[in-house]
Design brief:
The complex is a heterodimer of chains A (197) and B (214). By secondary structure, chain A is of the alpha/beta class. Chain A is built from three helices and 14 strands. In chain A, helix 1 packs antiparallel against helix 2 and helix 2 runs antiparallel to helix 3. With 214 residues, chain B is an alpha/beta fold. Classes of the chains: A alpha/beta (197), B alpha/beta (214). Chains A and B meet through helix 1, helix 3 and strand 13 of A and helix 5, strand 10 and strand 11 of B.
Chain lengths: 197, 214
């Protein structure tokens, strides 16, 4: 991950371009034809985050904060400029997303969750109390990574799970089991949320 | 604006959602809202109360969704998406304009971020921060996917509960808080999430296991 001092204008735009291509690939994987992603809230929140991150890295903290708050106002995603996210970031549904911390390439956040600090203020490289994620991490809906924890490359966290400890490379966090009770004349059935990854 | 050329969209649009249907659905929304409100605050039903209820955020979200769905069924997809974006911007409720929801939609706390993509019958209740979306990692677009969840009548989605993927949920289903559902549910089912890992200060283990067994 490049440090703040190397974040040039070209690097910011390159990252944004990769983000855009990855979002388009998300649409194409589902067989949806889109003319442009320019007005999609998913793209808008990532673009505004890249702008605020760029301003922050240049030392224009006030402008960065203004763009960050405009992002929160327009899309509902709270992606702080202090968080360093690699290229290929996709936020699928930006309402109620909070991302503070650092991540590698191709972070995929589905919505209603994200990452951020807890009460422990140790610094492991992302800032006081903030998590450090590897490349190709997937956060499904409602997944949270909290506190100063290291999450390895290629980790997939299922929906509704909260991670508060370190995870090795390539592991997968399974969803909470659910219990289904039938109202009338039926046996209770046990089951899990199946693969909601 | 996005995905208008998607296959099957024309079929979805041809199904007529007329203005009278819009009015009937909204009347049922207001009725459900006032019935819930009457649990906390007794007031005489009158046309002025019905009209003033429309200023409440939970009904504004319903109105904006209904209008965007009406525009979408008229074929004015761009206007429909603008109305849906306005809903997202002001009330943090992002309901795809193509999704069909019957009358009696009730969204008590819209500011918490609600995502809905799919079809539902009457009397759907969307509690704080719940989400129903088609297959995982599908961004927002103009049309409802064929693999979006289908709900019956009188379904309630609890706070922070997530329904993902092409599942069929029956009628009178209650999905509890924080449950993530990725499978079909029969009629009258009650879904409870099992995630008790909390530590209580002293002697709480019995209480916790009792909670899990409930």
């Amino acid at each position: 991950m490049p440090t703040i001092s190397t974040l040039s204008c070209r690097e910011s735009l390159r990252r944004l371009g990769v983000d855009r291509r990855r979002l388009l690939a998300c649409y194409l994987a589902r067989g949806i034809v889109v003319r442009s992603v320019a007005f999609s809230p998913s793209f808008l929140c990532v673009a505004l985050y890249r702008l605020s991150r760029h301003l922050y890295a240049r030392g224009w903290g006030l402008a960065a904060r203004a763009v960050w708050q405009i992002n929160m106002l327009l899309t509902g995603a709270d992606i702080s400029p202090i968080s360093d996210l690699g290229e290929g970031l996709v936020v699928v549904h930006p309402v109620a997303v909070t991302v503070v911390g650092s991540a590698g390439r191709n972070l995929l956040v589905e919505g209603h969750g994200g990452m951020g600090g807890g009460l422990d203020l140790r610094d492991i490289g992302a800032g006081p109390g903030l998590p450090l994620l590897g490349h190709d991490v997937q956060l499904a809906r409602g997944a949270l990574v909290l506190g100063p924890v290291r999450v390895g490359h290629g980790v997939r966290i299922a929906s509704g799970c909260t991670v508060v400890r370190d995870l090795p490379d390539g592991c997968e966090v399974l969803p909470h089991p659910i219990r289904v009770r039938l109202g009338d004349a039926g046996q209770p059935a046990e089951g899990d949320g199946s693969d909601a990854q | 604006m996005l995905g208008n050329r998607q296959k099957g969209m024309a079929a979805m649009r041809s199904e007529c959602y007329g203005f009278s249907q819009l009015r009937a659905d909204l009347a049922r929304d207001i009725d459900v809202y006032l019935r819930f409100a009457a649990e906390y605050h007794v007031a005489r039903r009158s046309w002025r109360r019905s009209l003033s209820a429309l200023c409440m955020p939970s009904l504004l979200a319903c109105v904006l969704y209904r209008v965007s769905h009406w525009l979408h069924s008229r074929g004015w997809c761009r206007l429909a998406v603008i109305a849906a974006r306005f809903n997202l911007l002001v009330l943090r409720v992002s309901i795809t304009p193509a999704s069909r929801i019957g009358g009696g939609l009730y969204i008590p706390h819209p500011g918490t971020g609600i995502v809905f993509q799919g079809n539902a019958g009457r009397d759907l209740k969307l509690f704080a921060g719940c989400a129903a979306s088609s297959a995982p990692f599908t961004p927002l677009h103009g049309g409802v996917m064929p693999d979006a969840p289908q709900f019956g009548d009188n379904v309630s989605l609890g706070a922070m509960s997530f329904v993902v993927g092409p599942v069929r949920v029956g009628s009178n289903v209650r999905i509890g808080f924080n449950a993530s559902v990725a499978r079909d549910l029969p009629d009258n089912a009650i879904v409870v999430s099992i995630q008790v890992r909390s530590r209580l200060a002293s002697g709480g283990a019995a209480a916790v296991s009792a909670l899990a067994d409930r």
